[in-house]
């Protein structure tokens, strides 16, 4: 993936120019010290500059002004070919065909021009490598800042890739802070931890470390390779091949952290529409789908019936169902009501307590 597709800042474009009529100096005196080896770091950097691969992170703040000559040598420093390249695609093709123990050479010095029109000279491969590394470091810093900024915007809800049928963590929510701490809300419980964004060999990663021990920590405490699809979506994958999609959610009505619900006090009372909480009750408290350990098949989704009651006993007996519009006096404080979550086919049910909290919004 081109870094420029992600980074919002505009970098100064560093442009390298080499005259196509300039010969490589003293070909008969060439040594390996003069050449760029296929296994060298500079070779890899050049490949990142000219390659346009949507599946890889490329360096985009440097460009070459074409045309110029690229000479290819074998391991005995004999010239195999000398080609004029006219664009990134041609240069990338040459680099892609270089075999192990082979070398390339380009003409030095190379004139470099910044976007503001100022020029300077790159005299050898060491200066070329230093220039590319400096550019790469700037791009990587911008990418880290971009991802960090995104991760702090709103909350991020867990979803599944298209090829994954089920995960217990679907609809879990990450709420991140700028001090590097995070809260993962899963099934109504908050798990505290930390998150760190960094790059490994040009790949963006997020390290998640939740405190304590248990199934949740074991599932999430990994280094996650991260691919940002847009400002609203990213995919994370750990070294065990487990992937999740994280979707940014900014409207509290679109995600569920807990079964605590607030409503503003108006004229001394708060009004709660109980059916508005059905989705969160199901996400947090309803029995989840089951996965057959032998076949891997996932049980069908259940269309749960949700009703609300003033007490656990009423919920168990399914009597005295509350009306949908539930009013609480401001002086009454938090009220607990009980949601009965019933399978309409089997009539099996579970009950979950929810907290209705009058809030002074002034």
From TrEMBL:
Keyword Signal listed: yes
Keywords (A to Z) from UniProt: Signal
Leader peptide range in chain numbering: 1-17
Protein name per the record: Lipocalin-like domain-containing protein
């Amino acid at each position: 993936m081109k870094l420029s597709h992600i980074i919002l800042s505009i970098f100064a474009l560093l442009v390298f120019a080499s005259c196509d009529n300039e010969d490589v100096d003293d070909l008969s005196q060439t040594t390996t010290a003069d050449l760029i080896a296929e296994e060298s770091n500079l070779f890899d950097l050049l490949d990142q500059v000219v390659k346009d691969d949507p599946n890889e992170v490329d360096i985009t703040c440097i460009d070459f002004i074409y045309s110029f000559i690229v000479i290819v040598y074998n391991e005995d420093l004999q010239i195999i070919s000398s080609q004029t390249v006219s664009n990134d695609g041609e240069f990338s093709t040459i680099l892609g065909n270089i075999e192990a123990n082979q070398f390339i050479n380009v003409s030095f010095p190379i004139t470099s021009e910044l976007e503001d029109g100022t020029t300077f000279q790159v005299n050898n491969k060491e200066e070329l490598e230093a220039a590319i590394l400096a550019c790469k470091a700037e791009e990587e810093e911008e990418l880290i800042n971009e991802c960090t900024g995104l991760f702090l915007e709103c909350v991020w809800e867990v979803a599944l890739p298209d090829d994954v049928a089920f995960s217990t963590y679907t609809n879990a929510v990450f709420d991140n802070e700028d001090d590097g701490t995070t809260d993962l809300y899963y099934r109504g419980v908050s798990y505290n931890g930390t998150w760190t964004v960094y790059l490994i060999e040009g790949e963006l990663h997020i390290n998640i470390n939740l405190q304590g021990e248990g199934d949740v920590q074991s599932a999430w405490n990994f280094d996650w390779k991260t691919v940002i699809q847009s400002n609203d979506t990213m995919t994370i994958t750990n070294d065990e091949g487990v992937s999740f999609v994280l979707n940014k959610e900014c409207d509290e009505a679109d995600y569920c952290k807990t079964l605590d619900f607030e409503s503003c006090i108006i004229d001394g009372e708060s009004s709660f529409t109980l059916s508005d909480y059905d989705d969160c009750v199901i996400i947090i408290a309803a029995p989840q789908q089951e996965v057959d350990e032998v076949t891997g098949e996932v049980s069908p989704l259940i269309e749960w019936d949700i009703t609300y009651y003033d007490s656990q006993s009423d919920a168990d007996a399914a009597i005295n169902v509350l009306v949908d519009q539930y009013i609480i006096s401001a002086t009454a404080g938090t009220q607990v009501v009980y949601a009965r979550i019933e399978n309409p086919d089997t009539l099996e049910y579970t009950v979950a307590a929810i907290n209705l909290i009058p809030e002074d919004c002034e």
